[in-house]
Amino acid sequence: MTHEGSVSRARILRRTLTPPEARLWVHLRRRALDGLKFRRQHPAGVYVLDFYCAEAMLAVEVDGESHADRFEHDARRTHWLERQGIAVVRFSAESVRVNLGAVLDIIADRARERIRS
């Protein structure tokens, strides 16, 4: 897939957030989390990140059941992103559903840590 293809795909995905992604987005949008600006379904190379904070160079991924058998793909993707200087933090959809407060705390802590360094 080309970068242009990932941009088009990102536009489509923005309209079709999963319920856990939508739940998390409510708390990330409009600088609601510690004043950090997040983008949703952000293209990065050939990939589309669920959420991305450019200031912290931090990608937040919400993995649903479909990721259970995609370990190798996700590992390659994470490795590529890390080579670009982008840290990746992953949460299961279930974690977002049942433990949103802890998920938000982890995201805020990781972003602050990366901005300070």
Please describe the structure with a list of short key phrases separated by commas or semicolons.
21% strand, single chain, Endonuclease, Chain A, four-stranded mixed beta sheet, alpha+beta, 117 residues
How would you describe this structure to a colleague?
Helix content is 50%, strand content 21%. The chain has a 4-stranded mixed β-sheet, sandwiched between helices. With 117 residues, it is α+β, with helices and mostly antiparallel strands. It starts with a helix and ends with a helix. The chain has a single domain, classed as Endonuclease, Chain A (3-Layer(aba) Sandwich), CATH 3.40.960. It has helices at 3-15, 19-28, 71-83, 93-98, 100-116, and strands at 39-44, 47-53, 58-63, 87-92. It is built from 5 helices and 4 strands. Strand 1 (39-44) and strand 2 form a beta hairpin.
What is the class in the CATH system?
Answer: Alpha Beta
The total strand number stands at: 4
Oligomer: single chain
Describe the strand arrangement of the main beta sheet, using strand numbers.
1-2-3-4
Helix and strand content put the structural class at alpha+beta
Q: Give the biggest sheet.
A: 4 strands, mixed
CATH topology: Endonuclease, Chain A
* Count of runs of 4 or more consecutive helical residues: 5
Give the distance, in angstroms, between the N- and C-terminal Cα atoms: 33 Å
